[in-house]
């Protein structure tokens, strides 16, 4: 980018110049592929994730607070950049919670939800933020539910949390595919060290979409043995 990302004060004029240059980075072929995979309601420019990550990192070196205050939802890429900016900021619990809530209020696809895997600040206040995640999971907004589940599988796949993680996930009764897929993903991550508990969850409702997605996900993992694959398949047939 020619625009100086690390030295901008992020006035309205600065932000408009940034958007103009961001649009110029778009690639039609990449855009078509991204629109098929992501299915967001936002305009898609077609910029690689590596480029977006680089832009977000550069912004975070300057005045990230000012950027996040002015940044909107003009396109999918600008929202992803906001996540990368947030992921590089040094924040306390209250600051992180506020900015994360603001970011997730703009989330409208699995891809924007899954950007929370970069929010490593959570590890500094893991216990305290667990309460915030519970609120996400109990919310009727499927994007918040998916984000909460992704937080759990990324930062809370620990022995002291996994029983509660399973309980919280089991309490979700969503018909949304992306929430169901996140539940399956969580169970697959927990499976290697808690196999019998995951088997129990699958057996409790073997015809459900979540059970089928969980089996498919676990079977796709390299470390799943042939014997485990056979047992999993038998549970849903």
| Structure classification | mainly alpha
Assembly category: single chain
Instruction: Give the radius of gyration.
Output: 20 Å
* Helix count, DSSP H or I runs of 4 or more residues: 14
Q: How would you describe the shape? A: globular
Helix content: 55-70%
How many strands? 0
Mean pLDDT: 96
Uncertain segments are none
**Biggest sheet descriptor:** none
The percent range for strand residues is under 5%
Q: Span between N and C termini?
A: 54 Å
Order of helices and strands: HHHHHHHHHHHHHH
Task: Give a quick set of tags describing it.
single chain; mainly alpha; globular
Describe what you observe in this structure:
The chain is mainly alpha-helical and 237 residues long. Helix 5 (76-87) packs antiparallel against helix 6. The chain has helices at 12-24, 28-38, 49-60, 64-70, 76-87, 93-104, 110-114, 126-137, 142-155, 159-170, 177-190, 195-204, 209-219, 226-236. The mean pLDDT is 96. The longest helix is centred in the middle third of the chain and has 14 residues, at 142-155.
Break the fold down into its secondary structure elements and pairings.
Layout: H1 12-24, H2 28-38, H3 49-60, H4 64-70, H5 76-87, H6 93-104, H7 110-114, H8 126-137, H9 142-155, H10 159-170, H11 177-190, H12 195-204, H13 209-219, H14 226-236
